[in-house]
Amino acid sequence: MPRSTLLETHQEAALREVLRDFARYCQHVLGRPLRPYQLTPARAILASVFGRQGRTFTVLFARQMGKNELSAALEAYLLTLYSRVGGTLVKAAPTYRPQVLTSLLRLDGLLANPLTAGQWRAREGYIREVGRARALFFSGAPAAQVVGATASVLLEIDEAQAFSAEKYAREFRPMGATANTTSVLYGTSCTVYRGTAWK
């Protein structure tokens, strides 16, 4: 086997190994290794996503402990993994400005990594695409129009303690019903979701 072909084969094998493990992806692709307390919920979330378990997670971190960093890393990872087969992530926050815009900027920064730099696209201001995979970012404000979107890979609610429980139940949770999509609620301990109300 020619040396160049052998090198390419080794590189491809190394890339596959990195993509099999979220922690390695964060460290070697994003250049931003996550802490153990971030990786623990991440692995449970990803197990639910890949197993189509449809679980709902509440991620409780104190301020400045990296819940937004974790969320953006999960988004970049899943967009990369689903870039060939396709799939949709949906993320919502109580306000478009500054919360949704901050999430978009954070994801844009991570998509500048060596695997996806120059490969991702921004559409309509609130959509990010990598190959056939896309992430949609919405405001959860009472007047925001979001009906019609579908989350087939992951549904995320940021700052869930400030998010309308009624809007979540009526407009966002149904987005993942057909695909039994995993949901993640990021916020404080008051954000645990039970049935039709925040508890």
Short characterization:
By secondary structure, the protein is an alpha/beta fold. It is built from six helices and nine strands. The protein has a single domain (3-198), classed as Rossmann fold (3-Layer(aba) Sandwich).
Word description of this protein:
This protein has 6 helices and 9 strands; from the N terminus they run αααβαβαββββαβββ. By secondary structure, the protein is of the alpha/beta class. The chain has one domain (3-198): P-loop containing nucleotide triphosphate hydrolases (Rossmann fold, 3-Layer(aba) Sandwich), CATH 3.40.50.300. The strands form 2 sheets. Strands 1-7-6-2-5-4-3 form a 7-stranded mixed sheet, with helices on one face. The longest helix is centred in the first third of the chain and has 18 residues, at 3-20. The protein is globular and about 50 Å long. The N and C termini lie far apart (62 Å). The model is unreliable at 1-8 and 191-199 (pLDDT under 50).
Largest sheet: 7 strands, mixed
Number of strands: 9
What name is given to the CATH topology?
Answer: Rossmann fold
CATH class type: Alpha Beta
Indicate the CATH architecture: 3-Layer(aba) Sandwich
